[in-house]
Amino acid sequence: AATTTRGGGGDGDMHGAPQPLSALWPFIIISITYLLFTVTDGAVRMLVLLHAYTKGFSAMEVAIMFSLYELMGAGTNLAAGVCGARWGIRATLLSGLTLQIAGLAMLYGWTDDFSKLHAIIYVTAAQALCGVAKDLTKLGGKTVTKLVTPNERQGTLFKRVAGLTGYKNSLKGVGYFLGSALLTWSYVGAVSVMIALIVVALPFAWFGLTTKLGRVSKKNITLRAVFEQTGNVNVLSLARLFLFGSRDLWFEVPLPYYLRSATGMGWPRPAVGAMLAGYIILYGQVQAYAPQLVLGPLRQSPPNKHVCVFWNAVLLACPVFMGSVTFSTLYDTPGDGDGGKVSTLLLGVVSFAIIFAINSAVHSYLIVKYSDGNKVAMNVGFYYMANAFGRLIGTIVSGALYSYVGEDENDGLAACFLASSFFVVVSAVVSVRLDDDVGGFVCGRLCGGAEEE
Q1: Contact predicate 275/147, CB 8 Å
Q2: Measured between alpha carbons, how far is 330 from 113 in angstroms, rounded to an integer?
């Protein structure tokens, strides 16, 4: 029998000949398309947020603008799983790219003549299209790794999932910076550049993929089948909801508002974009190389339930630290003149990015591992529906906490961090319910697990 060496420091693969390039062609094509799309996904977030800030919208009002982006994403993940299984990944990918062009094009119509209510409704509708587009496109990126990787090559699967997801997030960070930088040049010009990137991506999906990729037997394709998940998929999906909710409780709206605000840091738009971009790029690169640089040396690759719970618990230190220092007198002085204020905020954000990336890499591998090969599109769609609900809850709650809790923005930001701490705890507790004990808990030489024959 082949030996799986998760407990002994290997990657869990059986030795065999490399896969031919033709077998990896769908992975290459979808990766190119998905990564180009991701730049625009990050950029449009910053375009809307910073443009709204300039026009005087509150954090709560911006959170509402993003609400349908997340809510439509949740519904789309369910439908995309069924559509991908019925019509193939090519159809969902092309639909996503087309809707992204439509959503971006709507932003041309956001003018100074709009009232606040009119603008919120209009931009929310545009963001809804972008939310549908994101999750239709993401389905291909998340399922193709499973479709092109043999079941016995779990180590290779983990590296491909982590690599694609990590580079996707890094390019989303590039999009964050690009969106904020282009906005200083021209709002209309920034939107036009994003549409051009999608136009470049379209031919890859149209000409490079077959209609059969990802399709399954029609008897397995029902909406009811999407909700008929295995226990591990259900548990991991719930843990994912709270994990990503913990990040968006402070990252998507409160942090950029605090960095931009005169009573917070008072940074200009390019600096805010650079900060958020740096977070996303660091997060993406750590995620991409987590198997080799972190989990491999700790003999936690490929990961199991115990690795998932362990890194969830480690993450808790970050929002607890950030919430504590934000409540302190260190943050009483407006602006970024106090070096202690800047350094503690940067330390907390960077630490969260690194540890959250490891958590995300573990989760992204486990959902593919737990998925049924014949229903992978539906399994992944259900899982990312939970992800979208977590982001929706985090975004809306963060807008309310930041806007209405306490006497100033420091109190609001601290409340967001403490709420994030609660979500991290719930995610860890839920993950304990996973049925995946093979190999036990391993953490380098401190704690070893038995080899599996």
Answers
A1: no
A2: 41
